[in-house]
UniProtKB/TrEMBL annotation:
This is SufE family protein. PANTHER family: SUFE-LIKE PROTEIN 2, CHLOROPLASTIC, SULFUR ACCEPTOR PROTEIN CSDE. It comes from the Bacteria. InterPro entries: Fe-S_metab-assoc_dom. It holds the Pfam family SufE. Residues 12-131 form the Fe-S metabolism associated domain. Belongs to the SufE family. SUPFAM superfamilies: SufE/NifU. It comes from Candidatus Cryptobacteroides merdipullorum.
Amino acid sequence: MKTLKERQDELVEEFSMFDEWLDKYEYLIDLGKNLEPFPEELKTDDRLIKGCQSRVWLDATDDGGIIDFRADSDAIITKGIISMLVSVYSGRTAAEIAGDDFSFIDRLGLKENLSPTRANGLVSMMDTIRSIAEKHLTK
């Protein structure tokens, strides 16, 4: 498995292949289409990420100190964004996730090229992932 930084660098490189933001949005949509199916019974209020205009569900399991994430959204671009975050942070330790600065998002230029409501949702997704990791650190 690639290190966290290697996976982030890989994603930045994938996005850099596209010159236009319209193409990058299409790529995000494709990432969302590849997201593992999310069980309907897990689409509960306690798994909804607060602060997102769309509905985004995030489930985390801890398997021997490794956190695995599953997610879904009812909006296609948002689903791509959460899919991207799941691909980066799932399968990592709580310490790796909590200690990361999420700076690869700035390198992607994603926040600046999203609508304000989607950018706020992205921040909420990152905060929720970090918060889950921090809770697992204290266990």
